[in-house]
Every structure is written in C-alpha cells, then in structure tokens.
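Onboarding guide, step 5: your first structure request.
Type a short instruction followed by the sequence, for example:

Predict the 3D structure of this protein.
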Amino acid sequence: MSITRRSGTGRPHLPRRLAQLYAGLVLYGVSMGLMVRAGLGLEPWSVFNQGISRHTGLSIGTVTIISGALILLLWIPLRQRPGLGTVSNVVILGLVMDGTLAVVPAVDPPAVRVPLLATAVLLNGAATGLYLTARFGAGPRDGLMTGLHRRTGRPVRLVRTCIELTVLAVGFALGGSLGIGTVVYALAIGPLAQFFLRRFAIEGSAERPSTLVAGSPAPSPQRAILPE
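The system replies with structure tokens like these:
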C-alpha cells in the first residue's frame, strides 16, 4: 500500500488540497457576484449583506467580509476553532465578489438573466464541493451553525433553517433581493453540493464526502458542514 493511501491526515495531498481550497473560494465568490448580476434573488446571507450594503454605502463584498469577521467572533463562546479555510473564506469571498461585479456588467433581458442565474447556482455547487473536500475548516457561517448545534443539541438542519430564515427576513426588510433565484438556490444547492463533494473527494481522505454534508450520518457535528 502506498504512503498516500496509508495516510489519514491528507498530508501527501497538501498541494491538491490547497489548490481545491482556493479554487473553490474564488469560484464561490464569482458565483455570488453572478447571482447579484442575474437580479433574480440571492441566497440568504447575500440578501442580508446586500440589505446592509444599501444602508451603509459599502460594497456588498466589503459587507460580506465584515459580517464574516463578526460571525467569526461568535465562535469564541461556542468554542469553535477556525482553520486556514475559515480565515481565507472571510477574506476571499468578498474580494472576489466585488471583483466579479466590477467586471460583469448588469444585464436586463430575461433570456440572459435566467441562464446567468443557472450558471451561478451550478458554479456555487462546484465551488462548495471543491473547498469543503479540501478539509481546511468550515466557513464562518457553517461554524456558527455547527457550534450552535453542539451547544443547544438541536438538529443541524433545524439550526441552519432558523439561522437562514432569520438572516433572510432581516436582509429582505433592509432591501435585499429576494426572488425566484432564492428559491432555486435553496432547492438546488443541496443535491449539487452532494454531487460535487463526491466528484472532488480526495483519495485517501479520512472522511467520506457524505459526512461533509449536514443530514448525512456523521460521528461529530464538526463534520456536519453545509455549503454557505
């Protein structure tokens, strides 16, 4: 048996893991920017960030970075430990999102907006599979979810639902974009993430792809990670 197959730490795969982590985070930021440009509704946290952006004058990417950093502070009482992927998530998503919005112009015809939305959601699923299978730690929002799960004992699905409904309601009240894209994302991201988690799984990983998605059998809540 080769060293790669014997290792449970994934150290022999470090270059690939780093490549998947940063490719995934970059693509995730691009997908978030494309959803904004599609103008058909955003995923819950982007609705929240966009709402704050409209009231502060800050770019949505900047708000995404700030909110991610503030959420990370909530990890302290929840006794969650950030990893390289956690810190990278906070910084990269917002920067790439703003960069995408600067490059991709606003579109109006539905014949362009609908395919753009579909591309964004598909890209988001692929990005989720890439960065989660790299196993460098959950994003700040996922860590908040798993931390609350550990402290309250409530099911992960329930905790996630409550968090996302709350940020969605607040974001919508602040003027964030809620629409058909929000519904499409909610319905499609789970199956897409599951598909790409299997597709990008690293051989010799200590964890099966199914344990990275909430709702699948997992020996610890830290493995019950959902895409953002």
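Each response can be followed by summary notes, for example: Residues 1-10, 208-228 have pLDDT under 50 and may be disordered.
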